[in-house]
Protein backbone atom coordinates (compact mmCIF):
# COMPACT_ATOMS: atom_id res chain seq x y z
CA UNK A 1 0.00 0.00 0.00
CA UNK A 2 1.36 3.42 -0.92
CA UNK A 3 2.05 5.89 1.85
CA UNK A 4 0.25 9.20 2.25
CA UNK A 5 3.39 11.04 1.00
CA UNK A 6 3.23 9.06 -2.28
CA UNK A 7 -0.49 9.67 -2.67
CA UNK A 8 -1.56 11.39 -5.89
CA UNK A 9 -5.17 12.55 -5.36
CA UNK A 10 -7.68 11.66 -8.05
CA UNK A 11 -10.58 13.75 -6.72
CA UNK A 12 -11.04 17.41 -5.89
CA UNK A 13 -11.67 16.49 -2.26
CA UNK A 14 -8.41 14.58 -2.17
CA UNK A 15 -6.52 17.60 -3.49
CA UNK A 16 -8.08 19.87 -0.85
CA UNK A 17 -7.13 17.44 1.92
CA UNK A 18 -3.58 16.98 0.67
CA UNK A 19 -3.07 20.72 0.32
CA UNK A 20 -4.36 21.31 3.85
CA UNK A 21 -7.47 23.26 2.86
CA UNK A 22 -9.58 20.65 4.68
CA UNK A 23 -8.17 19.60 8.04
CA UNK A 24 -11.21 17.97 9.67
CA UNK A 25 -13.29 15.03 8.51
CA UNK A 26 -16.30 16.72 10.15
CA UNK A 27 -16.16 19.38 7.44
CA UNK A 28 -16.49 16.68 4.78
CA UNK A 29 -19.62 15.24 6.38
CA UNK A 30 -21.11 18.71 6.92
CA UNK A 31 -20.66 19.45 3.22
CA UNK A 32 -22.07 16.04 2.25
CA UNK A 33 -19.15 15.13 -0.01
CA UNK A 34 -18.65 11.40 -0.70
CA UNK A 35 -15.23 9.99 0.19
CA UNK A 36 -13.78 8.07 -2.76
CA UNK A 37 -10.14 7.78 -1.68
CA UNK A 38 -9.09 5.91 1.44
CA UNK A 39 -6.04 8.18 1.81
CA UNK A 40 -8.40 10.99 2.80
CA UNK A 41 -9.45 8.98 5.84
CA UNK A 42 -5.83 7.95 6.53
CA UNK A 43 -4.88 11.64 6.61
CA UNK A 44 -7.75 12.98 8.72
CA UNK A 45 -8.23 9.94 11.00
CA UNK A 46 -4.73 8.47 11.37
CA UNK A 47 -5.54 6.54 14.57
CA UNK A 48 -8.09 4.11 13.10
CA UNK A 49 -8.14 0.56 14.48
CA UNK A 50 -9.37 -2.37 12.40
CA UNK A 51 -10.86 -5.67 13.55
CA UNK A 52 -11.85 -8.79 11.63
CA UNK A 53 -15.53 -9.59 12.09
CA UNK A 54 -15.77 -12.65 9.86
CA UNK A 55 -13.87 -14.61 7.23
CA UNK A 56 -15.96 -17.07 5.25
CA UNK A 57 -15.14 -19.50 2.46
CA UNK A 58 -17.53 -18.92 -0.44
CA UNK A 59 -17.88 -21.53 -3.17
CA UNK A 60 -19.76 -21.59 -6.46
CA UNK A 61 -19.79 -23.76 -9.55
CA UNK A 62 -19.03 -22.44 -13.02
CA UNK A 63 -17.95 -23.86 -16.38
CA UNK A 64 -14.36 -24.23 -15.14
CA UNK A 65 -15.41 -26.14 -12.04
CA UNK A 66 -15.74 -25.15 -8.41
CA UNK A 67 -14.56 -21.63 -7.60
CA UNK A 68 -13.50 -20.82 -4.05
CA UNK A 69 -13.07 -17.37 -2.59
CA UNK A 70 -12.59 -15.90 0.86
CA UNK A 71 -15.02 -13.24 2.02
CA UNK A 72 -13.67 -10.90 4.70
CA UNK A 73 -15.76 -8.49 6.76
CA UNK A 74 -13.79 -5.80 8.59
CA UNK A 75 -14.78 -2.99 10.96
CA UNK A 76 -12.63 0.11 11.45
CA UNK A 77 -13.03 2.90 13.99
CA UNK A 78 -11.17 5.39 16.13
CA UNK A 79 -13.10 4.55 19.34
CA UNK A 80 -14.17 8.18 19.43
CA UNK A 81 -17.22 8.69 17.23
CA UNK A 82 -16.23 7.24 13.85
CA UNK A 83 -16.81 3.75 12.49
CA UNK A 84 -16.90 2.02 9.11
CA UNK A 85 -17.46 -1.47 7.75
CA UNK A 86 -16.20 -3.14 4.59
CA UNK A 87 -16.51 -6.50 2.89
CA UNK A 88 -14.35 -8.00 0.14
CA UNK A 89 -14.30 -11.35 -1.64
CA UNK A 90 -11.02 -12.56 -3.18
CA UNK A 91 -9.14 -15.81 -3.77
CA UNK A 92 -6.66 -15.25 -0.92
CA UNK A 93 -7.31 -14.27 2.69
CA UNK A 94 -4.63 -11.58 2.98
CA UNK A 95 -5.70 -9.52 -0.06
CA UNK A 96 -9.37 -9.93 0.93
CA UNK A 97 -8.68 -8.49 4.38
CA UNK A 98 -6.66 -5.59 2.99
CA UNK A 99 -9.34 -4.77 0.43
CA UNK A 100 -12.07 -4.93 3.10
CA UNK A 101 -10.09 -2.48 5.28
CA UNK A 102 -9.90 0.02 2.41
CA UNK A 103 -13.62 -0.32 1.74
CA UNK A 104 -14.38 0.11 5.45
CA UNK A 105 -12.47 3.41 5.41
CA UNK A 106 -14.53 4.60 2.45
CA UNK A 107 -17.68 3.69 4.41
CA UNK A 108 -16.64 5.63 7.52
CA UNK A 109 -19.50 7.46 9.26
CA UNK A 110 -19.79 9.81 12.24
CA UNK A 111 -21.64 8.49 15.27
CA UNK A 112 -23.47 10.89 17.57
CA UNK A 113 -22.96 9.92 21.20
CA UNK A 114 -24.49 11.30 24.38
CA UNK A 115 -26.14 10.25 27.62
CA UNK A 116 -29.61 9.47 26.35
CA UNK A 117 -30.70 7.52 29.43
CA UNK A 118 -33.20 9.16 31.77
CA UNK A 119 -31.65 7.09 34.58
CA UNK A 120 -28.27 8.75 34.21
CA UNK A 121 -28.23 12.22 32.60
CA UNK A 122 -24.50 12.63 33.27
CA UNK A 123 -24.06 14.65 30.05
CA UNK A 124 -21.08 12.51 28.98
CA UNK A 125 -20.78 10.92 25.52
CA UNK A 126 -20.90 7.27 26.53
CA UNK A 127 -24.13 5.92 24.99
CA UNK A 128 -26.48 6.43 22.06
CA UNK A 129 -28.68 9.56 22.20
CA UNK A 130 -31.98 7.74 21.58
CA UNK A 131 -33.41 4.41 20.43
CA UNK A 132 -32.06 3.43 17.00
CA UNK A 133 -32.66 0.50 14.66
CA UNK A 134 -30.76 -1.15 11.83
CA UNK A 135 -31.46 -4.05 9.49
CA UNK A 136 -29.37 -6.16 7.09
CA UNK A 137 -30.72 -9.36 5.61
CA UNK A 138 -32.76 -11.15 8.26
CA UNK A 139 -30.93 -9.49 11.15
CA UNK A 140 -32.55 -6.56 12.96
CA UNK A 141 -30.72 -4.66 15.70
CA UNK A 142 -32.17 -2.15 18.13
CA UNK A 143 -29.88 -0.08 20.36
CA UNK A 144 -31.15 1.84 23.38
CA UNK A 145 -29.52 4.37 25.74
CA UNK A 146 -28.12 2.93 28.97
CA UNK A 147 -26.86 4.61 32.17
CA UNK A 148 -23.14 4.95 32.69
CA UNK A 149 -21.49 1.78 33.98
CA UNK A 150 -23.99 -0.58 32.34
CA UNK A 151 -21.53 -1.73 29.69
CA UNK A 152 -22.44 -3.14 26.30
CA UNK A 153 -25.43 -5.43 26.71
CA UNK A 154 -25.09 -6.93 23.25
CA UNK A 155 -23.64 -9.87 21.35
CA UNK A 156 -19.91 -10.13 20.69
CA UNK A 157 -20.20 -8.98 17.07
CA UNK A 158 -22.20 -5.88 18.01
CA UNK A 159 -19.72 -5.17 20.80
CA UNK A 160 -16.88 -5.05 18.26
CA UNK A 161 -18.68 -2.42 16.22
CA UNK A 162 -19.85 -0.39 19.23
CA UNK A 163 -16.42 -0.30 20.88
CA UNK A 164 -14.76 0.96 17.71
CA UNK A 165 -17.49 3.62 17.45
CA UNK A 166 -16.75 4.81 20.98
CA UNK A 167 -19.97 3.53 22.62
CA UNK A 168 -19.37 2.10 26.09
CA UNK A 169 -22.92 1.67 27.44
CA UNK A 170 -26.05 0.48 25.65
CA UNK A 171 -28.90 -2.00 25.77
CA UNK A 172 -29.73 -3.97 22.63
CA UNK A 173 -32.34 -6.25 21.11
CA UNK A 174 -31.83 -8.48 18.08
CA UNK A 175 -34.02 -10.50 15.75
CA UNK A 176 -33.11 -12.86 12.94
CA UNK A 177 -30.15 -15.14 12.34
CA UNK A 178 -27.40 -13.37 14.29
CA UNK A 179 -25.11 -16.34 13.58
CA UNK A 180 -24.59 -14.65 10.22
CA UNK A 181 -21.93 -12.45 11.76
CA UNK A 182 -21.41 -10.22 8.71
CA UNK A 183 -25.09 -9.26 8.61
CA UNK A 184 -25.12 -8.77 12.39
CA UNK A 185 -22.20 -6.33 12.15
CA UNK A 186 -23.77 -4.50 9.20
CA UNK A 187 -27.12 -4.18 11.00
CA UNK A 188 -25.35 -2.64 14.00
CA UNK A 189 -23.53 -0.25 11.66
CA UNK A 190 -26.85 0.68 10.00
CA UNK A 191 -28.33 1.41 13.42
CA UNK A 192 -25.44 3.73 14.30
CA UNK A 193 -26.08 5.62 11.04
CA UNK A 194 -29.44 6.65 12.49
CA UNK A 195 -27.80 8.74 15.22
CA UNK A 196 -27.54 11.57 12.69
CA UNK A 197 -31.02 11.12 11.21
CA UNK A 198 -32.52 13.07 14.13
CA UNK A 199 -30.92 16.10 15.75
CA UNK A 200 -31.63 16.21 19.51
CA UNK A 201 -32.58 19.54 21.09
CA UNK A 202 -29.20 19.73 22.84
CA UNK A 203 -27.56 20.09 19.40
CA UNK A 204 -29.93 22.70 18.05
CA UNK A 205 -28.30 25.95 17.00
CA UNK A 206 -30.12 29.22 17.02
CA UNK A 207 -30.36 30.96 13.66
CA UNK A 208 -30.91 34.36 15.25
Give the topology.
Layout: H1 12-18, H2 25-31, H3 38-44, E1 49-62, E2 65-77, E3 82-90, H4 93-106, E4 109-110, E5 132-136, E6 139-145, E7 152-153, H5 156-165, E8 170-175, H6 181-193
Parallel strand pairs: 7-8
Antiparallel strand pairs: 1-2, 2-3, 3-4, 5-6, 6-8
Helix pairs in contact: 1-3, 5-6
Architecture overview:
With 208 residues, this protein is an alpha+beta fold. Helix content is 28%, strand content 28%. The strands form 2 sheets. It has a 4-stranded antiparallel beta sheet with strand order 1-2-3-4, with helices on both faces. A 4-stranded mixed beta sheet has the order 5-6-8-7. Strand 1 and strand 2 form a beta hairpin.
Short structural summary:
The protein has 6 helices and 8 strands.
Can you tag this structure with a few keywords?
Ribosomal Protein S5, domain 2, four-stranded mixed β-sheet
Q: Please list the strands of the largest sheet in the order they lie side by side.
A: 1-2-3-4
Q: Average pLDDT value?
A: 90
Strand content of the residues, in percent?
25-35%
The helix content, as a percent range, equals 25-40%
Q: Given the C-alpha coordinates, what overall shape results? A: flat
The first-to-last residue Cα distance is 49 Å
Sequence of secondary-structure elements: HHHEEEHEEEEHEH
Name of the level-1 CATH class of the domain at 132-200: Alpha Beta
User: Radius of gyration, Cα only, in angstroms?
Assistant: 19 Å
Amino acid sequence: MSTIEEWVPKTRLGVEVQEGRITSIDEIFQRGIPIKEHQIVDTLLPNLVDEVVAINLVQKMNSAGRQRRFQATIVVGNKDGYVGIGQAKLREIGPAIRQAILLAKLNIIPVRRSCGSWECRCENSHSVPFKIKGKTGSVKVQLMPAPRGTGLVAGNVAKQVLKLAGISDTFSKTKGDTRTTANYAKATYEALKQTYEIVPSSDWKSEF
